[in-house]
Design a protein that fits this description.
Layout (H helix, E strand, L loop, with lengths): L7 H20 L2 E3 L3 H18 L13 H4 L9 H8 L7 E3 H7 L3
Antiparallel strand pairs: 1-2
Helix pairs in contact: 1-2
Length: 107
Amino acid sequence: MGMWIETPELQKAFEAVRRMAYAYAQRGPYALNPDESVVTHVLRGLAYNKVKHGLAYCPCRVVTGDPRRDAESICPCRSHRADIEATGSCECGLFVSKAYAEATKKP
């Protein structure tokens, strides 16, 4: 992804993906990672992909250009539930189980 350079387009995309992530965590069985630096890093990657590729593709996956294949990587990605079930966190670390969030929350 490279260095984060603030532009109006990236800021708008960042706010959009931030709203999506917070709303998804609020209405679902998952929480956002309690580590704010992880959340910010992943949201920046999502915003970058939204600007570059038009959709908020998971930043830990390669955008191939094949719309059918890439659709599986739109956040929240298709595998996030299985990842959280297996490890407590999705691959990029944005979404975590409630138990993971409680166990890793800083005092």
